[in-house]
Amino acid sequence: MLAVDGPEFHQEMGQIIKQNKLEEIEHWGFAEDNSPVLRYLIDSRWYGELSRSYFFDSQHNKVGISGVLSEQQYNEKITQFYNNKTALCEIQWVVEF
After folding, report:
1. What is the arithmetic mean of pLDDT over 12-32?
2. For residue 36, what are the contacts with CB-CB under 8 A and spacing of at least 6?
3. What residues are paired with 28 via a beta bridge?
4. CA-CA distance, 16 to 39, in Å (whole number)?
5. Which one-letter DSSP state was computed for residue 8?
6. What is the pLDDT of residues 43-80, one digit of tens each?
7. Dihedral sign from CA coordinates of 77, 81, 87, 90
8. Which residues, at least 6 apart from 10, have a Cβ–Cβ distance to it below 8 Å?
9. Contact, 33 vs 7, CB < 8 A?
10. Rounded mean pLDDT, 30-55
């Protein structure tokens, strides 16, 4: 899981990870506060709407979804990746604080 907020949000990201019981998933956050440039590099078609989730398959194809997803929607998307015999490499979760 990759959160694309600046380092000033790392503590809040940790709380969200713990609250949603996602400690078992590898997670990353930006080390420098160059968030707009890094977000653009991730998805140049993204206009900054939050929240934003990306799902990557093993071939690094991505599906980006804007808006808050429920736990059920996350589970459905993950199941879709697994049912297509595609390994889920990473979930990127963008949260507006």
Report:
1. 82
2. none
3. 2
4. 20
5. G
6. 888 887 777 888 877 777 788 888 888 888 888 887 77
7. negative
8. 29
9. yes
10. 80
Of the CA atoms within 13 Å of residue 82, those in its CB half-sphere come to 6
DSSP state of 9: G
Q: Is pLDDT of 41 > 80? A: yes
Q: Which residue has the tokens 């993204």?
A: 46
Residue pointed to by tokens 């297509």: 84
Return the SS3 of 97: coil
Q: What is the mean pLDDT of residues 88-94?
A: 43
The helix (H) or strand (E) run that includes residue 93 is: strand 90-94
Return the amino acid letter for 21. K
52 and 46 in contact (C-beta within 8 Å)? Answer: yes
Concatenate the DSSP letters of all residues of 52-85 into one string.
Answer: EEEEE-TT--EEEEESPPPHHHHHHHHHHHHHTT
